[in-house]
Amino acid sequence: xxxxxxxxxxAPALAPAADxxxxxxxxxxxxxxxxxxxxxxxxxxxxxxFVALFGKNPLDLYFYMYQGAFGTWFSWQNTLTRAxxxxxxxxxxxxxxxxxxxxxxxxxxxxxxxxxxxxxxxMLSSAPPLxxxxxxxxxxxxxxxxxxxxxxxxxxYRGVNETISSxxxxxxxxxxxxxxxxxxxxxxxxxxKPSTREIGAVNMIGSIPGTDVHWGLVFGLVAAVAAYVLIxxxxxxxxxxxxxxxxxxxxxxxxxxxxxxxxxCFIAGACAGLAGMVEVAAVQGRANAxxxxxxxxxxxxxxxxxxxxxxxxxxxxxxxxxxxxxxGLLQRRLGLPDASVLVLQGIIFVxxxxxxxxxxxxxxxxxxx
Amino acid sequence: MDFGRFSRRQLLxxxxxxxxxxxxxxxxxLAADTTIGFxxxxxxDDYGYNQAxxxxxxxxxxxxxxxxxxxxxxxxxxxxxxxMESMINLDGASLLFPTSFGxxxxxMIKMANKFxxxxxxxxxxxxxxxxxxxxxxxxxxxxxxxxxxxxxxxYSSKTGKLGFVAAKPIPQVLRNIxxxxxxxxxxxxxxxxxxxxxxxxxxxxxxxxATNSLIDQGVDVLTCHVDGPKTMVENAARRGAMVCGYxxxxxxxxxxxYLTGAEWNWEALYPKFVKMIAAGEAIPNFxxxxxxxxxxxxxxxxxxxxxxxxxHADDVKAKLVAGDYVIFKGPIMDNKGKTAIASGTDxxxxxxxxxxxxxxxxxxxxxxx
Lengths: 369, 369
Known about the structure:
The complex is a heterodimer of chains A (about 375) and B (about 375).
Chain A (H helix, E strand, L loop, with lengths): L1 H9 L10 H33 L4 H14 L1 H25 L8 H18 L5 H30 L3 H21 L33 H18 L1 H11 L1 H6 L4 H28 L10 H11 L4 H25 L4 H16 L8 H6 L1
Chain B lengths: L7 H16 L10 E6 L9 H13 L4 E6 L6 H14 L1 E6 L5 H11 L4 E5 L11 E6 L2 H14 L4 E6 L4 H17 L4 E6 L6 H13 L4 E5 L4 H9 L3 E6 L10 E7 L1 H13 L7 E4 L6 E3 L8 H16 L5 E2 L2 E2 L5 E3 L4 E2 L16 E2 L4
Parallel strand pairs in B: 1-2, 1-3, 3-4, 4-5, 5-11, 6-7, 6-8, 7-17, 8-9, 9-10
Antiparallel strand pairs in B: 10-12, 13-16, 14-15
């Protein structure tokens, strides 16, 4: 048993964690909570030291971070609002990772999804709101899905590195967005901020009742749980993980790897596209350059911190949402520059990736199992 | 980096004042302690758009009884709504200045509706009767200062070729390019302005390329309309060209090459707003002005500006301050040979037609699309 635990530590740090099987699942879960938790605390301690170097009291720092992120009901809503798009964009990286692919182009899928959803809403402007909203969801998911499927197809049939192509597709998506928003889809009344026409207040999806948090959070939670079930509890997910572990073995047992790659990439892009649809239908009300706010890029960080596990993405997204929610308070109360939040994110990222070396080496866990 | 602006005492004072303010019902127009929030889209030491606002905020810090809270690099998404709410809920801000164009609609409008007793002042938006009464928009006719820059540039250029590094072909930017060119052609009727659009507000690499490419084509005086003119100013000075600044005074960056520049005068306007509130006057919801209203100003002339240029520029400036000078006075041809403003038509600073400008005047080399 202990040798199998050690095996998982030898797996490449960035590859999806191998399914530990039913017997080991319990010990593995403890590790999966304990190690990243310790890494997080270590990162906060290092950041406290960094802040102390500039003459600020680290205890003030922790207090304001807590207050800004989770201290009040308003802070919680702030955190969850920021977490919502991150859950969806993180899935865009985490799902292809099951196949051993590193997709970092969620931002592009988000933009194309947002653009498609806006186009759908503007074309159906006279339809009932529910129809418009459903069409926006479909259009956003299809648009984003096809965008990442393009990167998957290039890798599968043309041998183009999917990391590079998905990143470059972000810039193409941004150019397409700007081109259409400043050209064919421009509302002539949007003088100094080129934008499309508004989708209309009745078509906005609004907030979850009783809160300020938009429905994107629910979409994200449902998508993350569905992705978890798909990957760990279906034949399709098993096949994807087999292909991710060893492509040749997968082909020998007769799996259609090409179809797997395209399907998983489509689902991944659809998640990011849905995030784009939510940005339009819950926040901006139209498409313009504001959509490129970097959610797709932060999603990559979330996916890696969650070790590409769809369920773990939820708490990690909330954590990063909380950090960005508290960032404003750090600026205002401690006079820290905006970049300090990036420093903290960077320290957490390094600490969590570095802690990968600890898996399977914790003696008390071995003794326990 | 500015780390030295916070003390525990200030925080306690702020908290105590806040409690006192709410106990008194906060009816007094400007109670002993008023918290004002400033939100910037970029960093507040960018030698550009955001620094201009931060200088205005710094002017307020000198006034007694005011507490200023600032947050930089806030994206134009629901993040800025959350920042406003956070300033209101956690800092007790009662007057907010979200300073970036994209914060206006839907974000600031939403917050103004949600907090009808607080005041929101936006830079650049176009407030209309449909918008909440506690919201306002202010902006300056900075093309007047660009016109003066143009006169100085026209006299100073030896080649007669001027360069303009611009972000996007939107009305505000086109108006600056046109005013600069019209001014230059007062001094030198053969002067031309070559314009390069970089496509976005903050593109340092493209701005540097554009600067170099303009100088390679014989341009010897440059100006710009991007968020951070630092890149253009430093590169142009290094290449031996002269520059006219924008947003703030960039002469510290290039003391030998800096001719003059078009600057915002927020450090005059913001204290004026605060005094209006303190006196119980309403700030007009739609507040505009130029040199006359001291919303914009012209940088002091550099040493190499000739007496002739100074005299002509000062002369026109005096007429603009007196309010009896029209920059966009027909006949004005566009650079495609069509009449942009017919002979006999005066388009004064407040003419709404100018807000829709979509052409480049004769003498500008470049295209709007």
